[in-house]
From TrEMBL:
Superkingdom, taxonomy of origin: Eukaryota
GO BP, one annotated term: GPI anchor biosynthetic process
Assembly notes: Interacts with GPI-anchor proteins (via the GPI portion). Interacts with TMED10.
Protein species of origin: Vombatus ursinus
Organism classification: Eukaryota, Metazoa, Chordata, Craniata, Vertebrata
Gene that this polypeptide is encoded by: LOC114031798
Name of this chain's protein: Metallophosphoesterase 1
Length: 381
């Protein structure tokens, strides 16, 4: 009898040991799966992105010393959810994805500047002071960056409201957090940041003051680009900047009829491509677009707002790149643009982030395998 009991105890112990070992292995597999899908996948995908090559001496230029290269990341439409719209799980998930993608990109690619082309928040247009403060705090956590990387944000309609919702209060609280002015010059490259929501052209106070600033700035930049700058009486006494043509950064794209001519895997879906854009809502008005082109004669324009990719050529020579949304809430395949820029040239490439479908497929497949494993293991012998 005692012998039987002892055998029974040993068998029980062995069964318990086997079960514990199984659950330990199972726990480790689940842990490894989460680490892979929530951390490692970002490294694997972003590791494949490379800074594009750029010419450092302009063709035909007498200049011999190469122009320094600036490495810039452009992203748009992060739409950090506020307290009203969206489920808390959605907010948690999307912010985690953006945080991992941004932090991994900073670590692997070491950009010198990251520009966000508007709509960083989803509810900045109506959020209470308390909600705004909470949104800003989360933004600072998600997009934290080392001191050698600068983060510059352009205003979007979800940050300060569409033109009819925008007011001095909303604009000022945005500027208090993200004030970089209209001009940012570095390594001889001039970036002009336009508050495109204020390009309504209706003479509102904010719009008039913004236009006056831009006219002044365009005068400064155009004078600096003239070879006979000093002998031009219109330019006398004006501070000279780099002679490089500016790069315009804004939220609304310049006027285009629709996204019908946009190509690429992250352009607008077929059912949306032929929808006509509404001026002052989807894109800038024709008049405002023309003004910006006249004033600045930019060499490149980058914009957001449409959440999809597009490349447009204005006046047959000025390219505009629509940067797709950086949030998985808006796309299955978010991305950012990598730019190697000098004062004489630039080269851009796109870095895609992990597809949401891929991550979900990995989780689902792993879930099915785990269920099968448990079922097989728990079969009575
Ligand atoms: Zn927008």
């Amino acid at each position: 009898m005692t012998k039987h009991r002892s055998l029974y105890r040993t068998l029980n112990f062995l069964r318990f040991k086997r079960k514990s070992w199984f659950f330990l292995k199972f726990g480790f597999l689940v842990f490894a799966l989460i680490v892979f899908c929530e951390y490692i996948i970002y490294y694997l995908v972003i590791f494949q992105c490379r800074w594009p090559e750029v010419k450092t001496i302009a063709s035909g230029s007498k200049q011999q010393t190469p122009a320094p290269v600036l490495k810039v990341m452009f992203l748009a439409d992060t739409h950090l959810l506020g307290e009203i719209n969206g489920h808390w799980l959605d907010k948690l998930r999307r912010e985690w994805q953006m945080e991992r993608a941004f932090q991994t990109a900073l670590w692997l690619l070491q950009p010198e500047i990251a520009f966000i082309l508007g709509d960083v928040f989803d509810e900045g247009k109506w959020s209470s002071p308390k909600a705004w403060a909470a949104d800003v705090e989360r933004f600072r956590r998600v997009f934290r960056h080392p001191p050698h990387t600068q983060l510059i944000v352009v205003a979007g309609n979800h940050d300060i409201g569409f033109h009819y919702e925008m007011n001095t209060y909303k604009l000022q609280r945005f500027k208090k957090v993200f004030d970089f002015g209209e001009l940012f010059s570095i390594k001889g490259i001039n970036f002009v940041m336009v508050n495109s929501v204020a390009m309504e052209g209706d003479g509102c106070t904010i719009c008039s003051s913004m236009e006056a600033q831009l006219i002044k700035l365009s005068h400064l930049l155009n004078c600096s680009r003239q070879e006979k700058y000093h002998s031009n009486p219109n330019c006398s006494g004006i501070q000279q900047l780099s002679a490089s043509a500016p790069i315009l950064l804004q939220h609304y794209p310049l006027y285009r009829r629709s996204d019908a001519d946009c190509t690429g895997e992250d352009s607008a879906p077929p059912e949306k491509k032929n929808l006509l854009f509404e001026e002052r809502y989807d894109v800038l008005s024709k008049e405002a677009s023309q003004k910006l082109l006249w004033w600045f004669q930019p060499r490149l324009i980058l914009s957001g707002h449409t959440h999809s990719a597009c490349e447009v050529l204005h006046d047959g020579k000025i390219p505009e790149i629509s940067v797709p949304s950086f949030s998985w809430r808006n796309r299955n395949n978010p991305s950012f643009i990598m730019g190697s820029i000098t004062s004489v040239d630039y080269s851009l490439s796109k870095c895609f982030l992990p597809l949401e479908h891929t991550v979900l497929t990995i989780y689902c497949t792993a879930g099915i395998l785990v269920a099968l494993l448990i079922l097989t293991h728990c079969q009575p012998v």
